[in-house]
Design brief:
This protein has four helices and two strands. By secondary structure, it is α+β, with helices and mostly antiparallel strands. The longest helix has 14 residues. It starts with 11 loop residues before the first strand and ends in an 8-residue tail after the last helix.
């Protein structure tokens, strides 16, 4: 069993769309080179770390024009491809969001379904 830990933080921007867990929401998004989905970024870092890979910045540099406004689901696709090559399989994930706004409690189930689809694991393995 391998365990990883990921963390991501960005400043809010009223000029950016808010993406969390592969979904878009009303509210201020995050200043980022990609779409700024902090949930998917933290998960990618955790999965990469658990698999013994370098961090997300190594694979998706914020200096690269090809990553500008990149859909973070592509980051997860690449991450899952890397662990698959080592014959590793994702078992479960736990995500903690620290935010004053927006209130996400009514979106938890929707985000779990989205993450289940993106990560190819059942919702009972997502917290």
């Amino acid at each position: 069993m391998f365990v990883g830990n990921g963390f991501d933080i960005h400043k809010h921007s009223p000029d950016r769309k808010l993406f969390l867990g592969g979904l878009s929401f009303d509210g201020d998004g995050f200043i980022a080179h990609s779409d700024g989905d902090i949930i998917l970024h933290a998960l990618a870092d955790a999965i990469l770390g658990a698999g013994g890979f370098r961090d997300i910045g190594h694979y998706f540099s914020d200096k690269s024009p090809e990553n500008l406004n990149l859909d973070s689901k592509k980051i997860i696709e690449k991450t899952m491809s890397l662990i698959s090559k080592k014959q590793l399989k994702l078992n479960n994930v736990d995500v903690t969001i620290v935010a004053q706004k927006p209130n996400l409690s009514s979106y938890i189930s929707e985000m779990e379904l989205s993450l289940s689809s993106i990560l190819d694991i059942s919702t009972d393995r997502i917290s």
